[in-house]
Amino acid sequence: MQKPSIPKGTRDFGPAQVARRQHIFNVIRRTFESFGFAPLETPTLENLSVLTGKYGDEGDQLLFKVLNSGDFAKDVTADDLATGSKALLPKVAEKGLRYDLTVPFARYVAMNRGTLTFPFKRYQMQPVWRADRPQRGRYREFYQCDADVVGTDSLLCEAEIVLMMAQVLDGLGLHDFTIKINHRGVLRNIYQALGGEGRETDLFVAIDKLDKIGRDGVSKELLERGFSEPTIETLFALLTVEGTYEEKLQRLLAGFVTAGVEPDGVRPTTADVEADSPEPLANYRGLTELAQVRDLLTASGFRQFDRLEFDPTLARGLSYYTGCIFEVKINNVQMGSVSGGGRYDNLTGSFGLPGVSGVGFSFGVDRLYDCLEALDLFTVTGETPTRCLITHFDVASGRAALPLLAELRAAGIPSELYPDASKLQKQFKYADAKGIPLVIIMGPEEAAAGVVKIKIMQTGVERVLPMGEVVAALTAE
RNA sequence: GUAGAUAUAGCUCAGCUGGUUAGAGCGUCGGAUUGUGAUUCCGAAGGUCGUGGGUUCGAGCCCCAUUAUUUACCCCA
């Protein structure tokens, strides 16, 4: 006999876990829909040509590929085998499991461009797969909940992302969170302020690690990558600006002006948004847009600015983001980010639809679950939806209970009849173990008298009711 | 891909310097109570000590290999 097992990085979810996960999904879905996002689902499998090249070399390594059906090796030649996996792969696998929800979404938008009404707002809650090494908060199969808007570059979308992040986390009871926001334009300006020395991506990769490896670690890495010491000094002066959201914007502005950074101008946006923006920031796109997002949040009634932090060190990989970027962490839990996102100006370009601006973000349900568990914040309990268990002792009383069972279900009370005429003790243990709040006792005595005994498990109180009044009494409570 | 840790009952784990028949708690099942759960008492079942080899009079314990799991790095949700 073999030991049963499941692939590493995957999990089974028992009834209690599913109930808790559904609660998380419900909070997210309600929030997304209240902001006008419509649901979309895409296939588990995508063509590999859609997936490869979108996540960098490392991302391609982490894709799960699916062998072709039938004789998958029929096109493989001896040459291919000698050349190695790169030559082999396209001949044996043409499909793969989706790696995220953003790329399939971009593919969908490009394919359906003619029928979509823009701006197009969609949300998507589906599993994704990554052939990663599993560890804390990292799985090979996990759910993402994405919401994206494409076809508008209004900064209202960015502001609403912050609103949705806060609403979901508050709705889950995860009140102690920090939403970090930055802008790729700010990062680019910082790079320019350093005189354009070294490679831009090296710089961002290094500063993204600031909170992890510290200032000394980052300096060391930058020195190794060919940045000079005075440059690194300037960099830290800019990165470590302190103060409120506004103060950091002003201090970075001063830094950019001092360093002689060429203003990159303001991206055209709607007139009223521009009118709200503070004048002195208008020369740098990143700073300006961050100020506008803050103003839109204020106007929307957002009051949690203590939980929104402008963090110039936030870089979020370097994938396709071009504007604002976001990342959310739950405080006092050792867990990676539970949400992240940003604006991309050309996501659908590689699918033949250039110039479509979009902005979106994603929640990691599995990490939210782990955070709620670590902080002991779950309010959803229970192994079963059953609210009422009918117990019985013999075939006759069991049959006599069937009309009542149907009546309870018709009245919207999830109910079950214990299937076997077991000892009453066993039936009660069943109800207790599953957290069923009500037990109806239907024995020969009750059946003969046309009554039932109802016990409220939590209090232990019992009372006798005529059969015909049971549903009315229960629904009245 | 790099580095470390762990592997003993269904679950969580003890097991001393290598020494008789490998233990506990929880869970499961049965009984005390032939019609009452969560509390109490009694009892039972449940083990190839991950796998293979080695050292030894003797290995759960020491050595080697191997597999699985897990943590950290890289990257990410």
TrEMBL record:
Keyword Cytoplasm attached: yes
| Cellular localization per UniProt | Cytoplasm
Q: In this protein, which residues make up the domain named Aminoacyl-transfer RNA synthetases class-II family profile? A: 1-403
- UniProt EC number: 6.1.1.21
Could you tell me which InterPro entries the record lists for this protein?
Answer: aa-tRNA-synth_II (IPR006195), aa-tRNA-synth_II/BPL/LPL (IPR045864), Anticodon-bd (IPR004154), Anticodon-bd_dom_sf (IPR036621), His-tRNA-ligase (IPR015807), HisRS-like_core (IPR041715), HisRS/HisZ (IPR004516), HisRS_anticodon (IPR033656)
The alphabetical list of record keywords is: Aminoacyl-tRNA synthetase, ATP-binding, Cytoplasm, Ligase, Nucleotide-binding, Protein biosynthesis
At the top of the EC hierarchy, this enzyme's class is ligase
Q: Which reaction does it catalyse?
A: tRNA(His) + L-histidine + ATP = L-histidyl-tRNA(His) + AMP + diphosphate + H(+)
Which chain regions cross the lipid bilayer? none
Residue runs in coiled coils: none
Write the signal peptide boundaries: none
**A Gene Ontology molecular function term of the record:** histidine-tRNA ligase activity
The primary site where this protein sits is cytoplasm
Could you describe the subunit structure of this protein?
A: Homodimer.
For this protein, the record's NCBIfam families field holds: hisS (TIGR00442)
> What family does the database annotate?
Belongs to the class-II aminoacyl-tRNA synthetase family.
| Protein name as it appears in the record | Histidine--tRNA ligase
Q: What is the lineage of its organism?
A: Bacteria, Pseudomonadati, Bacteroidota, Cytophagia, Cytophagales
Gene symbol? Answer: hisS
